[in-house]
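Predict both folds.
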Amino acid sequence: MTDKLIIGSRGSKLALTQSRQVANLLGSFHPGLVVEIVEIKTTGDKNLGASLSELGGKGAFTKELEDALLAGQCDLAVHSLKDLPTTLPDGLRILCTPAREDTRDVLLCRADSTFNGEIPFLGERAIVGTSSLRRRALLANLRPDLHAIEFRGNVDTRLNKLRDGKADACILAAAGLKRLALLDEVEMRVAEFKAHWLDWPPAPGQGALGIEGRTGDVGTARLLAALHDAATFAATAAERAFLNELGAGCQAPVGAQAVCPEGSSLHIEGCILSKDGKTRIRGNEFGSIADPEVAGRALAQKLMRQGGKALL
């Protein structure tokens, strides 16, 4: 029986928090197991001024972690699943998906703003910070007058940019804010900022953790089995299959969310947008948790036939 595991983690506060949460869960299920966390700096962390497209996509935040896994320098890596490419290197696979956190996006703005439907009231041509093409397109679809600017960096960095007046608002994932214990859901605040839920499609995999490891590492897989949530695995597998079938990666505005309402069935909704937000194609598909990728691929093919292919 394995008596020690090494987790490879990015050095951001959120990444380390997520890794510690996994380490604590492993320790609670397996008393006596020693879990060590080692920090690994990724290309994306070293180039916070560049956009994701300039860095070559999501792999900018995972390649060094995956190299460490393949070299045997760590036993597992804890990722925000939405940041993990849909195609993994040979020899690696997702060993575990713990129960999913909130999938929604949150818009943060000054406390004196007032709520107005799907997005809070912001002055005409207000500046909104986000590094996501999906969020930019959805914003443009709802409020074409708003001006989206590149907002990269960890959560604290983005909050500081908002605090310094570099934007009138910014958009973050609720899951990260909750894991960092920053979101007060009673008063709907994050620090001095008012928070508003955004009722729109999340990124595929948003709110879920993906624990990646070596394909043949049976011992680590057995230890992680206690943390695994089958419904989360099925839902995110469908979403990632949808994204993979589109061939969209991070270069197109795409949203998707799957749920498993009755334990054995699966329902996925998805959308493709033009980058300017003027066109939005959406649809849904039903399937089974026994083969969730089928529903994800079917939905992608349906939306491409409806005009989505031209948007990609």
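Second protein follows, with its predicted structure tokens after the sequence.
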Amino acid sequence: MLSRRLLRTKVVKGVYAHLQCESDNIVASEKALTASIDKAYELYFQMLALAPELVRYAEERQEIGRNKMLPTYEDLHPNRKFVCNRAIARIAECEAIANFNAKNSLSWSNHPDLIKNIYNDLQQQEFFTAYMASPVSSFKEDAQLLANIYMNILEENELLEQVLEEQSILWSDDLGYVLTMVARTVSSMRERQEQIKLLPKFKSEDDLAFAKKLLRQSIVEFAENKALIDQYTQNWDVERVAMMDNIILAVAVTEAKEFDSIPVKVTLNEYIDIAKYYSTEMSGTFINGVLDKITSAMVADGRIVKTGKGLL
């Protein structure tokens, strides 16, 4: 399922886009947020379908080898351990994945160079060499290889990043989150299970409502929160504070005020990490200091009141 971290990140980006285009249409920004969230879930299914494409490519290469004019012994007797990987076959046979991808026009068929690139990279990996050489043959080993593919070689593949950006600009920066979702799905696979346990879009029914409310209130309260932020950044050159830092701070303050069941510490940690990734090198430290001061003052004067789990 899509994590709250990803939803918060998309809200930050949504507020940024809203302010950059100087829009006064919150409904349109909310629809854009929902579309971005939907696309992230589509990417989960798109990435699940990638492994069967690697197997298909490997099998095609073996077929070409067998049909050579003068095939070698290895051409005629290839190591078929990868093409017979049972975990990958389970994904290839999953009707739910196939139906979802067909409905949303998701496919890798127009990117043979990417499949070739990833497969060639895979062949150079020690974990793949060890897998192919191992005399062991088990579903657990097959699933472990699949997990290694998703977690160890895909996130840093520049061609994959380029192809994903071409397919949808809304997939920008989603790959790491989605690969974690895919790895969780793979880790839950068992040989005796007939169906793959696909992750739902959200962990809780409240997640989408959380994201929409956070976006809307962050936009409505931005001027007010920006004025508050300026009070606590007087020792900084306010004009040089990155726009993204101001937006991250404003969204964090909104969350702290508007969601009484979320502990302040959770909010601080989430936005500090988002700042480290999406803003400047010093943003994490800067936002940590400013947010701590702001939230402490707001708790003290009653502007932030937590209940239930928010008290933890």
